[in-house]
From TrEMBL:
Protein name (Swiss-Prot/TrEMBL): DUF3596 domain-containing protein
Keyword vocabulary terms for this entry: DNA integration, DNA recombination, DNA-binding
Homology family: Belongs to the 'phage' integrase family.
One family name in Pfam for this protein: Arm-DNA-bind_2
Domain Tyr recombinase: 218-400
Length: 433
């Protein structure tokens, strides 16, 4: 007879063979006995009848006999107990606890995983993303499913069923990239369980991406100069210098949120940390994101406005004085885009526009790599290198907007202003992309 885990009995337990207990608020029978000096109380899920009482007594007698013989196995007698309990008593029995996949429920193992493995992730962003995916998507679907039942088919059906839960795409299928991100903690839990229990199982995640429908990757729009000015006209005046700071530096909101006044010296902005989901990070997205940005005249003009109005140790704040919040800022940004009636662009488009504008006015791609905080110029060409129809028409005004001291390196012996250049730098770039 299999006994399920229950609540503690209200009666004092008997030694030896144990006892059958009852609770006033329950019509079920309970077993109550000691094992390795530890009290064990379980609900039998059997109704309180004379016949069931005899069955439970026989069960307790067998337990007592096997304990006396040294043949009792807690995990076999109580398969519904938690994995921690089964592992604990198996260790006391002097054996190694190695349940089979059909004996371990995904939800039970996740409880242990969240207590032991999950805290080891150093990235706050990763912990938040994993927790959200596990608690809102994965657990509700697989909580009471054993690892044996998790197959490539069940995982595919799960991934295929994932839908957007908010925003303008609510109710529509998630992109394949988003589905794979949700499956990342699922895969991590599966791999850790196999390692923990020494299971040799075929991964249900193999080749999954190939089975999911391909979705077009959204490219960030590069902002044309006229549209940028129109957007600024519709952006609240408090946020105008912040938006301009973004397009003049290529910095992203999380880096701006982590920027302190002490990180700015006379001529440079030192990007050292970021602020993500309410947590300061001493490290950036990659080691290459730690960089220095020269403060040009154009950048100094906007930066002075921002610094002079901030009483916070941080450079950027919201209009109400609160610390800069990327989610709130994005809502302000979207309202301005809608009001301006321009091509829809996100705040991240400022970074892509900074790169495209820099290449347009002849910035060396290797220099741009450092300004953007990338590892190689491959990212510059692959991510920011798409030709933008008509952007070259904006070249003169972009040159003036970014400033001569940005375009022309300070140590250059032969500075050539944008209007006098042959233009071969941009044409050569366009031909290679």
């Amino acid at each position: 007879m299999k006994i399920k885990k229950g609540t503690i009995s209200i009666d004092a337990p008997a030694r030896g063979a144990g006892s059958i207990k009852r609770r006033k608020e329950s019509k079920k029978l309970y077993v109550d006995f000691y094992y390795f000096g530890q009290r064990i109380t379980r609900s039998t899920e059997l109704d309180d009848t004379p016949a069931n009482e005899r069955r439970v007594r026989d069960f307790l007698d067998r337990i007592h006999q096997r304990i006396e013989d040294g043949t009792f196995r807690f995990a076999d007698a109580f398969p519904g107990a938690s994995e921690q309990e089964k592992a604990h008593f198996t260790m006391l029995e002097g054996r190694e606890y190695r349940p089979e996949p059909h004996q371990v429920l995904f939800g039970e193992y996740v409880k242990e995983w969240m207590e032991t493995i999950f805290p080891s992730f150093s990235s706050p962003t990763k912990r938040n993303d994993y927790r959200e995916a596990i608690e809102t998507k994965i657990l509700p679907h697989f909580k009471n499913v054993s690892f044996y039942q998790i197959t490539s088919t069940t995982v595919f059906k799960f991934a295929d069923s994932l839908l957007c839960t908010r925003g303008e795409n609510k109710g529509k299928p998630l992109s394949t990239a988003r589905k794979m991100n949700i499956l990342m903690p699922f895969r991590a839990i599966w791999n850790d369980a196999c390692d923990h229990y020494r299971w040799v199982l075929k991964s249900p995640f193999d080749n999954l991406k190939k089975r999911l429908p391909k979705t077009e990757k959204k490219e960030h729009v590069v902002i044309r100069f006229d549209e940028w000015l129109r957007f600024l006209d519709h952006l609240p005046s408090f946020y105008q210098p912040i938006a301009e700071f973004m397009i003049l530096t290529g910095m992203i909101p999380s880096e701006m949120g982590g920027l302190k006044k002490e990180d700015i010296d006379r001529d440079y902005i030192n990007v050292k940390c970021s602020f993500v989901l309410g947590q300061d990070k001493q490290t950036l997205k990659t080691a290459f994101r730690k960089r220095q940005i020269f403060i040009t005249k154009a950048l100094r003009q906007r930066l002075d406005v921002i610094l002079n109005r901030s009483e916070s140790p941080y450079v950027f704040t919201m209009e109400d004085g609160a610390r800069f919040n990327s989610s709130r800022f994005c809502k302000v940004w979207k309202k301005a885009v809608d009001a301006a009636g321009i091509t829809y662009v996100t705040s991240y488009s400022a970074r892509h526009s900074f790169a495209a504008w820099s290449l347009l006015v002849g910035i060396n791609p290797l220099r741009l790599v450092k300004l953007m905080g990338h590892a190689s110029k491959q990212m510059v060409y692959e991510v920011y290198g798409n030709y933008v129809e008509g952007l070259e028409e904006d070249g003169e005004r972009i040159f003036d907007y970014l400033g001569r001291d940005f375009v022309i390196p300070q140590k250059s012996k032969s500075p050539i202003p944008f209007g006098d250049r042959t233009g071969d730098s941009f044409e050569r770039f366009a031909l290679t992309t």
